[in-house]
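The data are quoted verbatim for reference:
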Amino acid sequence: MDAVLSLNEATVAYHGDITILNRVSIAARKGCITGIIGPNGAGKSTVLKTLFGFLPLRHGSIVLGGQDISREPASRRAGRGMAYVPQSRSLFADLSVEDNLLLGCWPFRKDRARVRRRIDAVYSRFPILAEKRRDPVSSMSGGQQRFVEFGRALLIEPSVILLDEPTAMLAPRISKEIYALVRGLADEGMTVVLVDQNVRRCAEIADHLYILELGRNKAEGDRQAFEQGAGLRDMVATWMDYRID
């Protein structure tokens, strides 16, 4: 199956001379979860920021749906159906849930029927947000705020969604719900690129895994290769504080 989104031989640097990614390549396919794992400082989050257009390429290319988008701004990539949920909170805490969602409708703000339809679809997927639609985001739990971020990302009906540590700092019960949500999005046909420090859970739900180390591709394989390959497990065990079973 051809890749919907690909990062090809990408080199990315901060401040012009601090190279973070060195010829990294990633391919993500329709209806699949592509997991990116690696030790701290491997460049995982940088991959997502580069794919979404927040960081420029020094070398390489980004292809979405067969078109080179390497030089397009993030707003244009969102218009093409790419959504991004960063690790750090990206909500307006003093605004209500619905106001935060309305801001996510900005690209089609003049189409009031679509705005209402898309927000209602988010409320249908996340009933807790409908209950708290008038509440300020600051009054919500971390898990509920994460659902607002997911809901806002889904408003544009993306074909591709980039997720950076979606369960970081969340309770196990909420994390379980989010992993089920992520798997469900892929099963609905969405292309998912997932950066995750929870290697065990990422390996369980991802269809294909890339391991990065020091800004380079270290290894890759599908779920079965990761489960059965002692070499991959041993590699991961060297930078994890627990044994990979």
About this structure: The chain has a mean pLDDT of 91. Residues 89-157 form one domain. The longest strand covers residues 3-14. The CA atoms of residues 37 and 211 lie 5 Å apart.
